[in-house]
């Protein structure tokens, strides 16, 4: 009878199980190796690609910012160049070899191992494309910066005089007065966005100041002014003139000497009885001066002509707030005539009284043209 070993079948089963476990261990080892290898490859590249993607996002945001400015057409060439560089970068970043490398799917990353050399080449090309894109983004933002700086240099001094509260205008002036340097285009874009927001806020404040001005003008014009000299005593006329001025947020200062803009002592042409100074530091923005040494002061102080004179000077101020200067381009060489018309049309000054008091002084003489120009200024057209 042949010998039968009852342990042989069990032994074979054990060997089979061990074999299976060995195979599984090898597979697991290979899988772990592939996972580690692909993860390491992606981990080495991801920070670089994230940096390049940041450059790409800044370029896109810079285009959007430039296109949202007042005159985007002036940046059209720069925008087109940045867009071309961005397209060049995108074509490389969208390559299947790069997608395999960065995929969350292990199987796709394993496939990506077959393209290692191509991946290196593409990534090198991506670095070059990102560098070019960053350079062209700098060109675009530098053009935007120059345009904003040019607008600032042309208008900042005017805005400072026009706004009711100069806080933000002074902040804008202070920021442009400092040397600005940037560590990256993202930092430059953030600063330009902030400057643009501040500039927009200041311009809105100018619009608000003009709107408030017109409301105050209407209130000042509504104050009744007696027609005859004897209707009020000198104190009454001065109080009335002061009330008109205070409605505009302006105070009247009496002075014995002409002093405006560095000119002092001399009364220009001996004609000036009142004056308004446009000073760059706003120190005289809300002040009207009455020259009490004028030969006709005693008579003026006892008449409604005092109120008309104050309204004329207030009109200089209104024109300055509307246009940023008391001598807007649209008025040309007719500043005083236009100012007279403004006082009549918007402050209710007496046209006939002004004409009689200023007979023979051509530069102050009103006509239909000066009225039209004054209306245009009030409507926001400064030339």
UniProtKB/TrEMBL annotation:
PROSITE patterns named in the record: TAT
Name the record gives this protein: Tat pathway signal sequence domain protein
Organism of this sequence: Bifidobacterium adolescentis L2-32
Lineage start: Bacteria, Bacillati, Actinomycetota, Actinomycetes, Bifidobacteriales
């Amino acid at each position: 009878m042949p010998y039968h070993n009852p342990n042989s079948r069990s032994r074979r089963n054990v060997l089979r199980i061990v074999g299976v476990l060995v195979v599984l261990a090898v597979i697991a080892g290979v899988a772990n190796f592939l996972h580690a290898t692909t993860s390491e490859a992606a981990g080495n590249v991801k920070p670089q690609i994230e940096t390049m993607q940041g450059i790409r996002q800044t370029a896109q945001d810079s285009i959007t910012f430039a296109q949202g400015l007042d005159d985007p057409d002036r940046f059209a060439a720069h925008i087109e160049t940045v867009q071309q560089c961005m397209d060049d970068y995108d074509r490389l970043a969208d390559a299947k070899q790069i997608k395999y490398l960065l995929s969350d799917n292990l199987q796709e990353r394993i496939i990506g191992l077959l393209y290692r050399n191509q991946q290196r080449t593409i990534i090198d090309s991506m670095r070059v494309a990102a560098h070019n894109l960053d350079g062209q983004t700098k060109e675009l933002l530098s053009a935007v910066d120059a345009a904003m700086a040019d607008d600032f240099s042309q208008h900042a001094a005017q805005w400072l005089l026009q706004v009711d509260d100069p806080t933000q205008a002074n902040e804008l002036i202070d920021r442009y007065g400092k040397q600005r340097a940037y560590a990256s285009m993202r930092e430059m874009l953030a600063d330009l966005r902030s400057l643009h927001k501040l500039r927009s806020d200041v311009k809105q404040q100018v619009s608000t100041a003009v709107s408030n001005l017109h409301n105050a003008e209407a209130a000042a014009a509504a104050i009744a002014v007696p027609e005859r000299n004897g209707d009020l005593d000198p104190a009454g006329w001065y109080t009335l003139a002061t009330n008109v001025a205070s409605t505009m947020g302006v105070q009247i200062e009496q002075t014995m000497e002409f002093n405006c803009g560095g000119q002092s002592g001399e009364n220009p042409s001996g004609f000036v009885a009142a004056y308004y100074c446009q000073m760059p530091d706003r120190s005289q923005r809300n002040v009207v001066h009455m020259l009490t040494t004028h030969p006709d002061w005693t008579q003026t102080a006892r008449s409604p002509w005092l109120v008309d004179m104050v309204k004329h000077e207030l009109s200089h101020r209104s024109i300055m707030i509307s246009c940023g200067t008391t001598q807007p381009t649209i008025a040309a060489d007719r500043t005083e005539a236009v100012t007279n018309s403004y006082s009549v049309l918007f402050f209710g000054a007496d046209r006939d009284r002004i004409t009689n008091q200023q007979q023979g002084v051509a530069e102050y003489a009103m006509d239909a043209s000066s009225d039209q120009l004054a209306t245009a200024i009030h409507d926001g057209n400064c030339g």
